[in-house]
């Protein structure tokens, strides 16, 4: 067997692969088939690299690399821990699937500037990898900001006045919160503790009074605008003007999960469970997260635009993970971490379906979907599977993460939150299930063509794969849970 | 004696001697390469000086062998070595582009004079920074100011003359205030050598004369520094001056004002006197923050982008002023680093304006329509330098902001940190406004525009790349600024 390179470099290579892909994409812009081939190849190589990192970690090696030292005492460093590894696995695998989907979608929908699209898509993935493998808070912040900026051209892809306006909201909220709150929190943390490393048990404990820690927690949680905690959630519905593959991978997986990933990291490795449990601000934020879960679900019910409804559903689901992080116990962490994977699989399926409906039937509003289930049975069956997974019904993966979060809420003795989660599940049913039911059981409008007409086959293939993921996460959740559990037995800790 | 020992004298002498020679060269095609060569030699000298300072420590050079306090001595410590590097570096980067840049803005006959005056202005700024003699500083200040007025007046727009006249009046008031301040200190201490002054001033704390002297110098330097509310001369001067002059001034002129402030507050008068007796922090921090808000807010409403950048400078200068006023190690690092970093980014942004003006004749919002496609490299530079202005990580702007906020937190001033961040968010608005117009509007059909010529594009690119390079590798900027802060007696 070939000797593996120093595992630390693997993390850097993982970030580098999509960037190399960018060069390839730009060089082959005249030959779309080759260009998409390069995207796929980069995705596959990236996924294999992340697997290699996982194997190296399994073999007990620490994956750590120092890249630069721009400020005294702080490095730009990469360290892989189990949570980051899970996020990287999810993002890199779904990148391949999304690329397959995007090929069909972008061509089927005759989008312009496809080279720009695939280029910034790859840059965004590189940034997501960087976030996943960040060794300290500054490194994370660097990639976090880079992710915001690299996704801006994707959000405004259409170039219409509407897209411009959405881009403004997107950039304003994400940059505003990150520079306005998160940066102060980071610099404050550094001023108080002299370090920004992620450590088990946190770095703030013993260095700060509870009052200051509470302010820092508020700044962090609201500074991570990508986690879309109300009232800073407006950017996510706005970002739905982007082409559907962007909404699917970035605004259901990479970008938003980067946000909640950051919240989980901060809660666990900057604050630590003990300190978090003692802060009264934690409870306030739990209430806000609970409010967001319910309120976003209610808003979702009022939306007739399919993508807008899914966006508000995402806002609601993201707060599950914020809530899980704030429970500050092991079950909460596991549930939050697992929800990154299960929600990703479910929500990306739903977005893929929304895009397929747009490409094949040119419909965007839910009220126009009557009877479409007979025209696109595969798509709507997949939509049903995705919905069930989001709701948390067996036999789909969403069940386990919800289960663990509930477990965490009980362990934290927060019965109120258990109630919130149950109500939210009912609301999920109320706003998701009517969509496939409407498609299958209502008659087609008069005069509409009734013969089967599905989206391009590459779209369908991608949808099939993500549906399978939902199922597999139900049948085999153990690898992911075991991976996350390593955080607490030392092996996977940074 | 080897030539290395005389580098401090040559630093000023080279551009000073090159200036009249330029005036004798009738054809701009000869004067221009000559001026470029002179600026490159000057830059090489400042690099060598920086190297010497870093390896051997502070250099003291006595002019003509006269030892102080009788003669004039040049003192080069990390602080002014960094400033020399910035000023001469900017000149070396911008000068090659001048020929094309001013071609459309300055008449053929005036071009050789342009080079002459530009070199004189360079001489003055280098002199202010390098000298260890207070009166000599004033002399160089006048050299740089007078040549600056002339440079501004060379702008193609007729309003340039009025702007230059305003600049002259206010600049003269500032210089006079500094002279009065120096005179008062001389009266009390009997010396003009700065190190000597600092020595003797320690016994004079509490003297009303010294307090008045401090106030005069503070206000005078504040005007030169374009510090809010004494910034009125700057927007017009930068708007109507030839674009490359704006680039050079935007990157250097006000920075020299910052240098004078830092030098006098921390070195000559001493931090103890300035902060404990004169409470200079209570002047600089509120005014700095007010400038940051006012400058950014006004910048948002500007249609002429050169004017927008000028108001953005008012805001950035506000940060430097506030950082100086913090009076701690991180704050002083922030001030020095931001002087350098802001020079890079504002230089790059003004060069972008020069590129656009060369191709379109003006730089207002409508002329930027659709430029993202037509001038991709130029606009790419604008985006990167603009992101740096916002303070995105991996750019120089982030490094400055990091130390600025760290300094504010270290001083226990949470509200100041918050205000700094809030005001810096305003820069997102004025930068992104331009980006949107450039990338999302369709260009007017009747105008054919192509990418700026390499001669102008390369300097712009160099500065843009430096905006990122110094955001990642901060050894030169932060490292030297740390040394400078320590050598000014401000320890972590």
What's the helix-strand series of chain A? HHEEHHHHHHHHHHHHHHHHHH
How far apart the termini of chain B lie comes to: 39 Å
Question: Helix count of chain A?
Answer: 20
Query: Strand arrangement, largest sheet of chain A?
Result: 1-2
How many beta-strand runs of chain B? 2
By secondary-structure content and strand pairing, the structural class of chain B works out as: mainly alpha
How far do the termini of chain A sit from each other? 28 Å
The figure for the number of domains of chain A is: 1
Query: For the CA atoms, what is the radius of gyration of chain A?
Result: 21 Å
> Which word captures the global form of chain B?
globular
Largest sheet of chain B: 2 strands, antiparallel
Query: Which spans of chain B of ≥5 residues are poorly predicted at pLDDT below 50?
Result: none
Order of helices and strands of chain B: HHEEHHHHHHHHHHHHHHHHHH
How many DSSP H or I helices of chain B?
Answer: 20
Work out the largest interface and the residue count of each chain: A-B, 28 and 29 residues
Main sheet properties of chain A: 2 strands, antiparallel
Give the strand line-up of the largest sheet of chain B: 1-2
Q: How much is the radius of gyration of chain B in Å?
A: 21 Å
Produce a short descriptive summary.
The complex is a heterodimer of chains A (about 500) and B (about 500). Chain A has about 500 residues and is an all-alpha fold.
General description of the model:
The complex is a heterodimer of chains A (494) and B (492). Chain A is an all-alpha fold and 494 residues long. Chain A has one domain (7-488). Helices cover 73% and strands 3% of the residues of chain A. Chain A has helices at 7-27, 32-58, 82-108, 114-132, 137-155, 161-193, 210-223, 235-238, 244-271, 273-278, 280-302, 306-327, 330-361, 372-375, 377-391, 398-411, 415-432, 434-441, 457-475, 478-485; strands at 64-71, 74-79. In chain A, strands 1-2 form a two-stranded antiparallel sheet. Chain A is globular and about 70 Å long. With 492 residues, chain B is mostly helical. Chain B has a domain at 325-492. Helix content of chain B is 77%, strand content 2%. Chain B has helices at 7-24, 28-56, 78-103, 108-130, 134-153, 159-189, 194-201, 208-224, 233-240, 243-268, 271-277, 281-300, 305-326, 329-360, 371-374, 376-390, 396-410, 414-440, 454-472, 475-487; strands at residues 59-62, 73-76. The two termini of chain B are 39 Å apart. Chain A binds chain B through residues 68, 70-72, 138, 141-142, 145-146, 149, 156, 159, 163-164, 167-168, 171-172, 175-176, 179-180, 183-184, 187-188, 190-191, and chain B through 387, 390-394, 399, 401-402, 405-406, 409-410, 417-418, 421-422, 424-425, 428, 432, 436, 440, 471-474, 478, 482.
């Amino acid at each position: 067997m070939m000797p593996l390179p120093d595992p630390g470099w693997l993390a850097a290579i993982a970030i580098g692969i999509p960037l190399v892909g960018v060069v390839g994409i730009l060089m082959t812009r005249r030959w779309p088939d080759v260009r998409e081939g390069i995207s796929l190849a980069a995705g596959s190589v990236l996924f294999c690299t992340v697997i290699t990192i996982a194997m190296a970690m399994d073999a007990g090696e620490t994956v750590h690399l120092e890249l630069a030292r721009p400020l005294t005492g702080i490095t730009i460093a990469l360290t892989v821990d189990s949570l980051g590894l899970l996020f990287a696995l999810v993002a890199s695998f779904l990148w391949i699937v999304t690329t397959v989907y995007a090929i069909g979608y972008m061509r089927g929908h005759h989008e312009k500037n496809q080279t720009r699209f695939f280029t910034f898509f790859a840059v965004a993935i590189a940034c997501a990898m960087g976030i996943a493998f960040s060794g300290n808070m500054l490194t994370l912040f660097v990639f976090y900001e880079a992710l915001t900026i690299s996704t801006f051209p994707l959000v405004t892809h259409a170039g219409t006045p509407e897209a411009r306006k959405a881009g403004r909201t997107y950039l304003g909220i994400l940059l505003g919160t990150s520079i306005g709150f998160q940066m102060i929190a980071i610099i404050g943390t550094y001023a108080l503790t002299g370090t920004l490393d992620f450590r088990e048990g946190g770095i703030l404990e013993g260095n700060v009074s509870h009052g200051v820690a509470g302010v820092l927690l508020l700044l962090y949680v609201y500074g991570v605008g990508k986690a879309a905690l109300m009232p800073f959630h407006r950017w996510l519905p706005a970002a739905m003007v982007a082409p559907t593959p962007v909404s699917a991978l970035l605004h259901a997986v990479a970008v938003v999960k980067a946000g909640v990933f950051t919240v989980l990291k901060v809660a666990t490795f900057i604050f630590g469970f003990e300190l978090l449990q003692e802060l009264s601000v934690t409870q306030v934020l739990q209430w806000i997260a609970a409010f967001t879960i319910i309120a976003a679900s209610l808003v979702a019910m009022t939306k007739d635009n399919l993508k807008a409804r899914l966006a508000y559903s995402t806002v609601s689901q993201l707060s599950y993970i914020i809530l899980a992080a704030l429970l500050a116990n092991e079950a909460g962490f596991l549930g939050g971490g697992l929800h990154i994977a299960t929600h990703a699989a479910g929500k990306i399926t739903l977005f893929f379906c929304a895009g397929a409906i747009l490409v094949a039937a040119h419909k965007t509003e839910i009220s126009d979907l009557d009877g479409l289930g007979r025209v696109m049975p595969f798509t709507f069956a997949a939509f049903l599977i995705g919905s069930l997974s989001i709701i948390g019904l067996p036999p789909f993966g969403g069940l386990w993460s919800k289960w663990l979060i509930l477990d965490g809420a009980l362990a934290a003795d927060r019965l109120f939150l258990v109630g919130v989660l149950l109500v939210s599940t009912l609301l999920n049913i109320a706003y998701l299930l009517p969509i496939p039911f409407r498609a299958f059981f209502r008659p087609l409008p008069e005069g509409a063509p009734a013969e089967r007409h599905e989206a391009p086959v590459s779209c369908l293939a991608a949808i099939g794969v993500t549906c399978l993921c939902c199922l597999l996460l139900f049948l085999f959740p153990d690898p992911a849970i075991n991976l996350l559990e390593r955080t607490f037995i030392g092996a996977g800790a940074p | 004696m080897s030539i290395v020992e005389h580098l401090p004298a040559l630093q000023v002498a080279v551009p000073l001697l090159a200036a009249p020679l330029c005036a004798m060269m009738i054809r701009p095609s000869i004067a221009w390469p000559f001026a470029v060569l002179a600026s490159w030699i000057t830059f090489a000298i400042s690099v060598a000086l920086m190297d010497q300072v870093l390896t051997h420590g502070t250099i003291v050079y006595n002019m003509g062998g006269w030892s102080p306090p009788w003669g004039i001595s040049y003192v080069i410590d990390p602080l002014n070595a960094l400033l020399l590097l910035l000023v001469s570096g900017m000149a070396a980067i911008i000068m090659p582009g001048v020929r094309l840049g001013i071609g459309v803005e300055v008449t053929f006959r005036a071009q050789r004079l342009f080079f002459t005056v530009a070199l004189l202005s360079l001489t003055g700024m280098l002199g202010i920074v390098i000298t260890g003699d207070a009166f000599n500083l004033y002399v160089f200040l006048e050299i740089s100011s007078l040549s600056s007025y002339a440079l501004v007046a060379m702008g193609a727009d007729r309003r340039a003359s009025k702007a230059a006249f305003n600049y002259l009046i206010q600049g003269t008031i500032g210089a006079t205030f500094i002279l009065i301040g120096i005179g008062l200190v001389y009266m009390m201490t009997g010396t003009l050598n700065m190190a000597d002054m600092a020595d003797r001033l320690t016994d004079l704390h509490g003297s009303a004369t010294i307090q008045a002297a401090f106030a005069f110098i503070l206000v005078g330097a504040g005007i030169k520094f374009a510090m809010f509310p004494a910034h009125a001369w700057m927007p017009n001067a930068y708007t109507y001056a030839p674009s490359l002059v704006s680039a050079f001034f935007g990157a250097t002129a006000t920075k020299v004002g910052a240098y004078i402030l830092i030098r006098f507050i921390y070195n000559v008068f001493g931090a103890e006197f300035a902060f404990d007796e004169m409470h200079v922090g209570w002047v600089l921090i509120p005014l700095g923050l007010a400038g940051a808000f006012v400058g950014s807010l006004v910048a948002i409403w500007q249609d002429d982008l050169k004017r927008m950048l000028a108001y953005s400078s008012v805001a950035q200068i506000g940060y430097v002023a506030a950082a100086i006023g913090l009076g701690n190690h991180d704050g002083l690092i922030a001030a020095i680093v931001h002087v350098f970093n802001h020079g890079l980014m504002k230089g790059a942004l003004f060069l972008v304006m020069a590129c656009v003006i060369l191709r379109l004749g003006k730089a207002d919002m409508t002329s930027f329509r659709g430029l993202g496609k037509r001038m991709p490299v130029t606009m790419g530079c604008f985006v990167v330098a603009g992101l740096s202005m916002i303070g995105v990580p991996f750019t120089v702007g982030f490094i400055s902001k990091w130390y600025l906020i760290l300094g504010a937190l270290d001083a226990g001033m949470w509200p100041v940190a918050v205000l700094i961040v809030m005001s810096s968010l305003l820069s997102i608005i004025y930068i992104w406004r331009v980006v949107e117009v450039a990338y999302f509007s369709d260009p007017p059909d009747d105008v054919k525009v192509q990418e700026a010529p390499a001669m102008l594009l390369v300097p712009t690119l160099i500065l843009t790349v430096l905006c990122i390079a110094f955001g990642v590798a901060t050894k030169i900027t932060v490292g030297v600024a740390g040394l400078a802060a320590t050598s000014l007696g401000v320890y972590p």
